[in-house]
């Protein structure tokens, strides 16, 4: 019985240490990101994403010519939808997620 309990305890310890990072790349289309307002939009998006867990802030690459943002994130800590929603909450469309949808989600609560 003791050996069985020790075996189970060791197995549980081994499984607890298995959680690893799952770093992925993600492109977000942000139509408001243009060359004329690039500084304002990128600053606002950086500030919004700084509050999200799992985003590699050093990986943010803004492309105003193509109206998009590329980044790396840990999918074990955040989801693509969380990133899109964080951008929509500050007033910009992100991959089709509109700021108005964030307002309706607040009023539904």
SSE layout and pairings?
Elements: H1 2-16, E1 23-29, H2 38-50, E2 55-63, E3 68-74, H3 80-89, H4 99-108
Antiparallel strand pairs: 1-3, 2-3
Helix pairs in contact: 3-4
Low-confidence stretches: none
Helical proportion, percent range: 40-55%
Provide the β-strand percentage band: 15-25%
| CATH architecture verdict | 2-Layer Sandwich
Tell me the number of strands.
Answer: 3
CATH topology: Alpha-Beta Plaits
Tell me the distance between the termini. Answer: 52 Å
Q: What structural category characterises the helix and strand content?
A: alpha+beta
Number of domains: 1
Please summarize the sheet with the most strands. Answer: 3 strands, antiparallel
Description of the structure:
It is a single chain. With 109 residues, the protein is of the alpha+beta class. It has a single domain (21-108), classed as Alpha-Beta Plaits. The protein has helices spanning 2-16, 38-50, 80-89, 99-108, and strands at 23-29, 55-63, 68-74. It has a three-stranded antiparallel beta sheet with strand order 1-3-2, with helices on one face. A hairpin with a 4-residue loop joins strand 2 and strand 3 (68-74). Helix 3 (80-89) packs across helix 4 (99-108). The longest helix has 15 residues, at 2-16. The chain is elongated. The model has no long low-confidence stretch (mean pLDDT 88).
């Amino acid at each position: 019985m003791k050996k069985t309990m020790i075996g189970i305890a060791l197995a549980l310890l081994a499984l607890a240490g298995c959680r690893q990072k799952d770093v992925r790349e993600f492109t977000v289309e942000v139509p408001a990101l243009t060359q004329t307002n690039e500084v304002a939009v990128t600053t606002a998006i950086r500030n919004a994403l700084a509050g999200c867990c799992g985003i590699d802030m050093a990986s943010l690459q803004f492309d105003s010519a193509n109206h998009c943002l590329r980044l790396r994130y840990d999918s074990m800590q955040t989801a693509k939808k969380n990133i899109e929603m964080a951008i929509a909450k500050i007033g910009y469309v992100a991959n089709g997620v509109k700021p108005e949808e964030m307002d309706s989600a607040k009023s539904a609560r």
